[in-house]
Amino acid sequence: MGVELAFFWGSAGLLFYTYMGYPLLVWSWSRFRSQHVATATGPDPSVTLIVVAYNEADRIQQRLENFLDLDYHWDLLEIIVASDGSTDATVAEARAFRSPFVQVLEFQRRRGKSAVLNEVIPRARAEIVVLADVRQRFETGVLHALVGNFADPRVGAVSGELMLLSGGTGSEVGKGVDFYWRYEKFIRRCESLVDSSVGATGAIYALRKALYKPIPQAAILDDVLIPMNIVRQGYRVLFESRACAYDWTTTTAQAEFIRKLRTIAGNFQMFLLAPWLLSPFSNRLWLQTVSHKLLRLLSPLGLVIAFGANLTLAHTPGYLFLLALQMAFYGAAGLGYLTRGAARRPPFLNIPYAFCLLNWATVMAFVYFVNGRQQVTWKSAVC
What is the Cα–Cα distance from 78 to 94, expressed in whole angstroms? Predict the structure, then answer.
């Protein structure tokens, strides 16, 4: 029975640390060691805003209109639209916008966002580069909120905050994912106060152009590798909650599953492409990286071990109750799956369903990663 106890409490302890212990640790750490950031003084820096697009003909002009609504000095702003081998009218629609502030770069062959960034960022004229996606929308004061942090010479990159909207019609899985995303942003905010967040929000982040290091063309998670390369050079990566981008929550579990499958497969790939991230001698954010990124990849294994060990201990006083709790949680997730298309269902099903969906996505992402099925190129998930 000693082995079963060790497996149960070892896996349960690891899961507790991953989802509750580490957030509490980094929150406590941030309360006692919050690093000051120098406030902006002097003239604003020049900014190049880059968006990489693939087959976004229907949305690219609306996105450019959003960029032109930003409150910034136009003599300091450059906007680059880089088409990654689009086969629709994305390039034509972007060029038809006819703004002197917009430059359109067309790449005939589709290679993925990382390869495009490796070519486009060195071409930027500005000292600060802001990366964005087509799908989201920025608040008007985003650029001032982001670049103000670069007055501190220790700051190398700044992530904005992605706000998820439902418009009153969000799906139940969308509500569960919204809770998970708020939990994730809480961790990033605390990490930023301590030192640096592990990665940035791909929809909105800025960096010093001089610190950019090309990343592998096969890389899926540019928003982690680029900021972590900047951390490796001795700079900080901040989380700026005043710089907001807006997106809609997913309306189907399938759309959310596709998104998470790609992201999580990118996390597996990231540790293969950048093994230095797992070295405490090369990565000063080693504890944060392992706790925030690596342990979540191990969560499905921990869940299976905890459940299996609990089954063998069910005859022991107290462990039958723990098994009942696990079965109730998974039962709620299963009921959430069965009622995923229902007009109404109990809200307490949302979190178990979203949690299990994300962990199943982790399992499938590992399979995709091992089989080499997850490609660096992407397509928009249907929401």
Answer: 14
Tens digits of residue pLDDT in 172-182: 566 667 788 89
Core vs surface per residue 85-102: b (16+ CB within 10 A) or e: bbeeebbebbbebeeeeb
| CATH code for the domain in which residue 53 is found | 3.90.550.10
Domain housing 93: 47-249
Is the Cβ–Cβ distance between 264 and 221 less than 8 Å?
no
Q: Which residues lie across from 80 on neighbouring strands?
A: 50, 103
Rounded to whole angstroms, how far apart are CA atoms 222 and 115?
A: 10
323 assigned to some structural domain:
no
Q: Identify which of 123, 149, 120 has the alpha carbon closest to the alpha carbon of residue 132.
A: 120
**pLDDT tens sequence across 63-94:** 999 999 999 998 999 999 999 999 999 999 99
Q: How confident is the model at residue 33 (pLDDT cuts 50, 70, 90)?
A: confident
- Total structural domains in the chain? 1
